[in-house]
Amino acid sequence: MRVFKFGGASVKDAASVKNVAKIIQNHHGTDPLVIVLSAMGKTTNALERLCALYMSDDREAMTNAFENIKSMHATIARELFPGPSHPIFNTLEQAFYQLYYYITESPGGDYNYEYDRIVSTGEMVSTLILSAYLKDAGLDNQWFAAQKLIITDAGFRDAKVDWIATSRKIKEQLTPFLKNNDKKGKPQLVITQGFLGGTPQGFTTTLGREGSDYSAAILGYALNASEVVIWKDVPGLLNGDPKIFRNTVLLENISYQEAIELAYYGATVIHPKTLKPLSSKNIPLKVKSFTQPGLPGSLINDNDQNDDQIPSYIFKFNQVLVWLYPEDFSFIAEDNLSRIFADFARHGVKINLMQHTAISFSACFDTDKTKTPALMRDLEKNFNTKHMSGLELITVRHYTRSTIDELIRGREILMEQKSRTTLQVVVAPDLSGK
Ligand code: ASP
Ligand code: MG
Predict the structure, then answer these.
(1) Can you list the pairs that 324-328 forms with residues at least 24 positions away whose Cβ atoms lie under 8 Å?
(2) Where are the domains of the chain?
(3) 197 in contact with ligand 1, CB cutoff 6 A
(4) For the domain bounded by 312-427, which CATH number is listed?
(5) pLDDT of 186-227, one tens digit each?
(6) Residue whose CA lies nearest to ligand 1 atom number 8
């Protein structure tokens, strides 16, 4: 049994849906396949905007936003299905009617709860469309609601998975189903939503933005999949972001541990939570290109032999660097450190890099419009502070001297930290235009 995950970019229009169907057809051979799908294109962003309009009670803008999302899906469906009498149009009408029904009620006070009710529509309709299209193309499949498979707490917008309940639900519903072949004697094909879960009481939850990779890993884990494949618009894992970096190299094979490290430092190709469940059962994860499905892509498994072969570069922009000096000239020791960390934890600010000397502590973190000033106000209660913003944090895994010189190109280094495998520097932005 294998799990395939397709992201929003892979189903952004009718031609892309057809491409996904072709990939599924070409790979659905001798064993069952579970497909985990995201919302189409940028639908989740559009639904987030709709949700904000709903909460602010801006009726007219909200209705327009709703109509746009609905008509985007109808346009795709009209290209995929033969005529207006096809049952999919009625199915979509019902799904959007439910969304419309939600947003015509006045909003409750719990933003996160409303968010999950509204934003989940994206994955519900994308999977309904793909399932119907595959059926028309002769690929029998069964659509499952992820709310009944992935059981979570009521932490709306960032729900925590109840692993025991989830494994039980998945095994109860999917395992017996996957065991027998379909009517045509072919291994089963399951379609379900990424990103979504449900509470035991039946409320829809979401697992955090970009959470569909994680959904695929959860299903892979519970079903003891032989592999999980994430289909993306890049050829696989690259050693840098191609939007920033010209000469990227494909990482053909890295270990789970290395992939976790890369995700931790800010590489965005795989959702970080995805890797743990897979590594615990040693399930290989492949990252492949949906535009060039014939290419091998990247393989993540327990082989760490190649981890140090290629340096990887991770850039984080909009960084703040803060220096703290105890007002009473006391040393930076456990008491001062615990005060500092308590402030960061209370404001939910994650430190990307930190250092201390006898009487100063410095930390680098992402700028946030509301969190940063609130945190600074609290830090200033106990410390003299200095800070700089608009900085870059560059992380190089498996660095060499020449790679660093090339990156820094004479820019001022404001903070630097090296371990055997990883170099991190905070630098002012490059304004040279080179
Ligand atoms: N559709 C969700 C998002 O855009 C989940 C995902 O794509 O992974 O965040
Ligand atoms: Mg996505």
Answers:
(1) 324/360, 324/361, 324/362, 324/363, 324/379, 324/383, 324/384, 324/385, 325/359, 325/360, 325/383, 325/384, 325/385, 325/386, 326/359, 326/382, 326/383, 326/384, 327/382, 327/383, 327/384
(2) 2-232, 312-427
(3) no
(4) 3.30.2130.10
(5) 999 999 999 999 999 999 999 999 999 999 999 999 999 999
(6) 210
